Amino acid sequence: MMLRILLTLLVAASLTFGTVAGAQSAGNDLPDIGSPADATITRSDEYQIGRMIVRGLREQGQILDDPEVNDYVQTLGSRIVAQAQDVGQPFQFFVVRDPSINAFALPGGFVGVNAGLLTATANEAQLASVLAHEIAHVTQRHIARSVRAQGRQSLASAAAILAAILIGATTGSADAAQAGIAIAQGTALQQRINFTRANEYEADRIGIGFLAAAGFDPFAMPDFFETLGRRSGLAGSVVPEFLQTHPVTSNRIAESRDRAGKIVRHVQPESPAYQYVRERVRVLGASPETDLRHYYATLREGRPLTPGQQYGEALARLRAGERDAAAGTLIELSAARDQGSPMLEAALGQALMAAGRQEQALETFRKALTIAPRNVPLSVRYAEALMQTGQAKQAHAVLLDVFNNVAPTPEQIRLTALAASSAGDTGDAYYYMSEYHIASGDLPLAGKQLELALAAPDLTPVQRARFSARLKEIRDVLAENARGRWRSREAAGDAGMM
Fold this sequence. Notes:
Layout: H1 2-26, H2 43-59, H3 67-81, E1 92-96, E2 103-106, E3 110-114, H4 115-120, H5 124-139, H6 142-171, H7 174-213, H8 220-233, H9 241-245, H10 250-261, H11 272-284, H12 288-300, H13 307-319, H14 323-336, H15 342-354, H16 358-371, H17 376-388, H18 392-403, H19 410-422, H20 426-440, H21 443-454, H22 461-496
Parallel strand pairs: 1-3
Antiparallel strand pairs: 2-3
Helix pairs in contact: 1-6, 1-22, 3-5, 5-7, 5-8, 6-7, 7-10, 8-10, 11-13, 12-13, 13-14, 14-15, 15-16, 15-17, 16-17, 17-18, 17-19, 18-19, 19-20, 20-21, 21-22
């Protein structure tokens, strides 16, 4: 019975890989040679897998959906991606609500950074070095290659296990069979470990090139790894998760340092936004009392607060209900340190709104947007303020102006839908809720929202045409997915009859 099950698994596995490989060229008249990784998983498959994982993280509240943080990490990541050749896909960067020090790359160009890693970096170049490393994992398609390698290993190890069982059956020795199985499993595990190590070295080599080409100090990568290594070596400390998922050896650090030394450096100044975002993430990830104690401790040590720490203290005060104090700090910081910074002006506008100084807040947003037009965080905060003051139609117009030019996040699409609803534009409200569900990966619900949009009164011909076209796209995709599932079930049924 066991032999039959193993044989069935082997045949099913070989049929699965054959089906996937054949599907690659099924839709084309010309053969698609592609890359070795494509033999197992396509770029479209990778994107769907990655989006599904991100959707799950978002539904669990694990993603930090903050306009300022989102905008910064996406801008920083895109700056590094621009140095890669033939990327062939968009990248999405996000911060996870997790205090542990880690970062990860998902299939399809999704890169996540834990809040704990961001606050552990000493400068922007160190954060950029982590993003560059993860970007290299994606551009080299390490995940797809791992799936392909593990697929081969699974078949090979299954064959070895089958051989061990056969040996045990013919010799009558159960011990021989168990030993053969253990060896086969151990060999497969070691192959996976070796493959992972090779991926890490390759991501270092390629990532450090991206890092330097983007104008960052290439030594930031080995420096950050060494810092984490020293931290894990302290008495009673826990090894950072980043070092567990990205094992760093002295040889690996030495190699990256040697490579950095051979690169001609053209280092650009650090963006002021880095210090603000690091403190913002620190504040959003802790309780208001913890935030204030952190900044008080710095002052007690006789060290003045940096502009970034002043910004963080103001945010902590705002969260603690000290609205006037927060506004006062941000006014002084904006005037003396970094006047015109979109991030500072957005926080100042929020603090003034919270303090009941609505006209001053709206004027702050308006002036800031003349300096940084269509800045996403500023536009979002301005729209929120307009909605709070009963100016939903203007808020809707502000959001449409920016998001017709910049791709919004799911939460920003949802805000646009709420603004449209408050402004009395029922059709657009349903339409943007459908876009929210599309971004979240729920196509059936998106289709229902579009049906409601088409039933809304007083639609313009342009709205009706746009909604109808979008609904047709969704229905076509759903029909194609249904056909794909039917073909998969049919293939699985054929394999089971073998």
